[in-house]
């Protein structure tokens, strides 16, 4: 197999990936691939006890319909002229069972199930399984009704923090494309039915791939951040991280107060003063990023960032499940926050695409993390078969830097295989339904994880203060701040925040 793959690579303009076994130890997988930010094909599915997602692809999709057909999902129509997904075409709400039935029809084009968000009108209306405000997005529908069939965090990536899980489901005999883009989280992609052809470029090629967004930062671990929604290297939105740091220090100060009584004694005073100084610095930083956000737009911390914080909490909590809903996770909400959380929620700050988690849009109206290069142009450049339509308004000469890119990897993923893809690796995915077999759909299940910044399996995230706090509090912490409707209100919060927070700490 190695020889055949090498010959294929030598005769084309792209490289291939050597597959590995799914039985590799988690620590070895981290050291060899995750820490080195190297994608890899895994020949086989998850070996976790209880993983049974293969039954989702039965002959008539009956299991999915019975288990999760009652939930409402948002599905994406294919772009009528570009013949691809991942565009600005408006998504459509429908019961999951109706979507599954539509895939049984022979004639297309068929809609595509992609990432689901708390902002989706369908999710707001589907309240039979939810209570206490907006639901989290860690287990969006229909995965919230299928949690008995997969581990919340798979063994292979057990040391990383979960951001979200998703089901990808569509139908295309000819092949449909996602468009070239990148994600903001590490991706473990589990193919259950059909085939997927991935074109992969490393994050460093952003300078040649014409992203819609304006670059804010290219982090050392490869994560790309854009000016319209800056994120840290661990994938946390800047403001979410600043708020978490304040809460982590306040928690430490409370622990010190409990342990030290009145805090008398030089040693105790010195320790407390150190943390008080850190608290002052953290409040200054939170106020600064609040004002910076208000200067950039009218929403400051968008509702999406607040939702991302709560989704992270639930992901770290592991299995916060309630009976009667198929294992749906829910975030805990304090009584005083109920009224504040009624504003419309824009979902995770890093949200939507096909095979992608980006929902931050550039001035062009397209997601910042999507490339301007048309799919047809990319395929033609690489000599790959394509079903994408040639753009009428541009040609390959409009993207001269495409010729400057390194040779990409091209991966032909089959049902029963997985792909690990580090955050911000550019990828274009062509999905094809099987010509024969149990279900004539292409179906995948994926996990997104916050990208690690540390180099050790034991401590994958360098900001231990923030991440230890997030893990310790699990799904039990909810943002205390309300969502503000105007930049003026957000500016007021920036001015008053430091004093408001300081009042909470007994000095």
Automatic annotation (TrEMBL):
<dbReference type="InterPro" id="IPR003347">
    <property type="entry name" value="JmjC_dom"/>
</dbReference>
<feature type="compositionally biased region" description="Basic and acidic residues">
    <location>
        <begin position="492"/>
        <end position="507"/>
    </location>
</feature>
<feature type="compositionally biased region" description="Acidic residues">
    <location>
        <begin position="334"/>
        <end position="361"/>
    </location>
</feature>
<feature type="region of interest" description="Disordered">
    <location>
        <begin position="315"/>
        <end position="374"/>
    </location>
</feature>
<dbReference type="InterPro" id="IPR014710">
    <property type="entry name" value="RmlC-like_jellyroll"/>
</dbReference>
<feature type="region of interest" description="Disordered">
    <location>
        <begin position="110"/>
        <end position="150"/>
    </location>
</feature>
<dbReference type="InterPro" id="IPR041667">
    <property type="entry name" value="Cupin_8"/>
</dbReference>
<protein>
    <recommendedName>
        <fullName>JmjC domain-containing protein</fullName>
    </recommendedName>
</protein>
<feature type="region of interest" description="Disordered">
    <location>
        <begin position="480"/>
        <end position="507"/>
    </location>
</feature>
<feature type="domain" description="JmjC">
    <location>
        <begin position="142"/>
        <end position="466"/>
    </location>
</feature>
<feature type="compositionally biased region" description="Low complexity">
    <location>
        <begin position="362"/>
        <end position="374"/>
    </location>
</feature>
<dbReference type="Pfam" id="PF13621">
    <property type="entry name" value="Cupin_8"/>
</dbReference>
């Amino acid at each position: 197999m190695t020889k055949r793959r090498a010959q294929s690579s030598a005769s084309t303009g792209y490289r291939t990936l050597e597959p590995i076994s799914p039985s590799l130890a988690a620590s070895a997988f981290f050291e060899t691939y995750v820490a080195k930010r190297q994608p890899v094909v895994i020949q086989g599915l998850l070996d976790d006890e209880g993983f049974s997602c293969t039954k989702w692809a039965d002959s008539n999709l009956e299991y999915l319909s019975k288990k999760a057909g009652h939930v409402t999902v948002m599905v994406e129509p294919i772009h009528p002229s570009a013949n691809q997904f991942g565009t600005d075409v408006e998504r459509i709400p429908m019961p999951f069972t109706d979507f599954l039935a539509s895939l049984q029809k022979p004639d297309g084009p068929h809609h595509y199930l992609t990432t689901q968000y708390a902002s989706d009108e369908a999710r707001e209306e589907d309240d039979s399984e939810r209570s206490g405000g907006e639901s989290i997005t860690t287990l969006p529908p229909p995965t919230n009704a299928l949690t008995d069939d997969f581990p919340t965090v798979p063994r292979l990536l057990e040391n990383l923090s979960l951001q979200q899980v998703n089901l990808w489901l569509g139908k295309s005999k000819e092949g449909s494309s996602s468009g070239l883009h990148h994600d903001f989280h590490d991706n473990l992609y589990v193919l259950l039915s059909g085939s997927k052809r991935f074109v992969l470029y490393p994050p460093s090629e952003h300078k040649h791939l014409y992203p819609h967004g304006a670059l804010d930062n290219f982090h050392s671990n490869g994560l790309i951040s854009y000016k319209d929604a800056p994120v840290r290297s661990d994938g946390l939105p800047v403001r979410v991280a600043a708020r978490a740091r304040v809460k982590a220090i306040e928690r430490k100060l409370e622990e010190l107060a409990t342990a030290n009584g009145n805090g008398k004694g030089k040693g105790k005073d010195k320790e407390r003063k150190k943390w008080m100084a850190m608290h002052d610095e953290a409040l200054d930083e939170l106020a600064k990023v609040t004002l910076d956000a208000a200067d950039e737009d009218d929403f400051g911390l968008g509702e999406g960032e607040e939702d991302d914080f709560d989704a992270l909490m639930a992901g770290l909590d592991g299995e916060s499940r309630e009976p009667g809903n198929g294992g749906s996770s829910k975030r805990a909400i304090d009584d005083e926050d109920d009224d504040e959380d009624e504003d419309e929620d824009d979902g995770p700050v890093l949200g939507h695409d096909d095979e992608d988690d980006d929902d931050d849009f550039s001035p062009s109206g397209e997601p910042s993390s999507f490339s301007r290069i048309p799919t047809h142009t990319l395929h033609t450049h690489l000599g790959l078969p394509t079903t994408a339509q040639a753009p009428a308004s541009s040609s390959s000469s409009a993207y001269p830097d495409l010729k400057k890119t390194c040779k990409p990897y091209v991966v032909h993923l089959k049902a029963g295989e997985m792909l690990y893809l580090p955050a911000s690796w550019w990828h274009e995915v062509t999905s094809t339904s099987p010509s024969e077999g149990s279900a004539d759909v292409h179906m995948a299940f994926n996990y997104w994880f916050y990208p690690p910044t540390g180099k050790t399996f034991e401590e994958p995230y360098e900001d231990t203060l923030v991440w230890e706090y997030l893990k310790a509090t699990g799904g039990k912490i909810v943002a205390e701040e309300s969502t503000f409707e105007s930049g003026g209100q957000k500016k007021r919060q920036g001015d008053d925040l430091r004093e408001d927070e300081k009042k909470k700490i007994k000095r």
